[in-house]
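Dataset card, provenance and construction

Sequences and ligand SMILES were collected as paired inputs. For each pair, a complete structure of the chain with the small molecule in place was predicted and serialized as structure tokens. The example below shows a pair involving pyridoxal-5'-phosphate. Curators did not alter the output after generation; any descriptive sentences attached to a record were derived from the structure itself.
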Amino acid sequence: METRAGDPGAFAHFDLHRVDSPAFVIDAARLRENLRILQDVGERAGVKVLAALKAFSMWSTAPIIGEYLDGVCTSGLWEARLASEFYDGEITTYSAAYKPDDLDEILRLSDHVIFNSPGQIIRCSAIISAARARGESFDIGLRINPLHAEGEVPRYDPSAPHSRLGFPIDQLTEEHFALIDGLHMHTLCEQDFPPLARTWDVVFDLLEPYFGKFKWINLGGGHHITRADYQRDELVQFLLDLKDDTGADVYIEPGEAVALDAGILVGTILDAHENGIAVAITDISATCHMPDVIEAPYRPAMLGELPGDPEVIGDEGAVRLGGPSCLAGDVIGDYRLPFAPEPGRRFAFLDQAHYSMVKTTTFNGVPLPSIWLWDSETDALECIKRFDYETFRDRLS
Ligand SMILES: Cc1ncc(COP(=O)(O)O)c(C=O)c1O
């Protein structure tokens, strides 16, 4: 998968020895810059912008996010609890399926509760009615699947054939609208505006007979709005038109765009040897700290990497970097390092604020990176959290 982020920004001048290793360092100034862009789009288009906690839920930054956005979207009970404990604004919850036992609390904590199928809404109707009878106020939504694939990689495309995510739009009927207040769709991943426009073209025709029958429509995430080349003016005009056409309130819930290029993962070379090519073991593990490197897969950009083509196996000057775990495939990639691969040397991978910190594991007893907040405008640096042996032990029994 091609990654189009990786702008070092102020990290180009950050001394990597100011923090532990491994460590996530988040730049609050870059976060605010992203949030200002999202807020501006929201205000100009008159739509609500929610931050997707699944991508970035470093809750010590919740007050910053709350200054700019309208709320957060969550993926189930635990994120909804986190949202209600720390974040401001509205809470929207969507899960591919709810456990009936979780639903009471989810309905209490969330403003919008979005289901993946009308069947589950019907099965949960007694729980929903009882919550309303207790005076709780929430909207019910249905996630639709536009059946229009725009994704680069099927694993990241909720509209890929036979997807389990969202109710197929061609099965929607008038009766479904009696069950719901709003609609949701999430079909994009790291995409710019044209894929959204093409998706809506398809959805428009199928949904037009039902305009006026839903109060709101949530266009999910996957919008790379804070990327420098994103067509933000077109998006604003599109959202204004969409509101006019449907008569509905509109929500978007970007995750990655909130934290794009706002964080690095700092690591250290522990050992190096030759095995046909130069190889180095680091204290950053792909599988434990950046699992998308293996899952997506993608090659994270490195701070200060020298030009060249390390993707060519054996490229002279390139070093294969991997983690300390026993997994043979715990390989991050081949890199042209800006220094000799000597033990003790520090380096950093770019654009690691989103979908890394939320996905870490302690497989092999590999320590979790500590979490730091830096403000590149003031140079203030704070260690937010260090993880110790007990964190590893207490996840096991
Ligand atoms: C329902 C939903 N909303 C929002 C998002 C956030 O997407 P992104 O981080 O790509 O903007 C996701 C990501 O998977 C999602 O599944």
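Derived descriptions for this record:
The CA atoms of residues 37 and 255 lie 13 Å apart.
The pocket of pyridoxal-5'-phosphate is lined by residues 52, 54-55, 73, 94, 186, 189, 220-222, 253-257 (CB under 6 Å).
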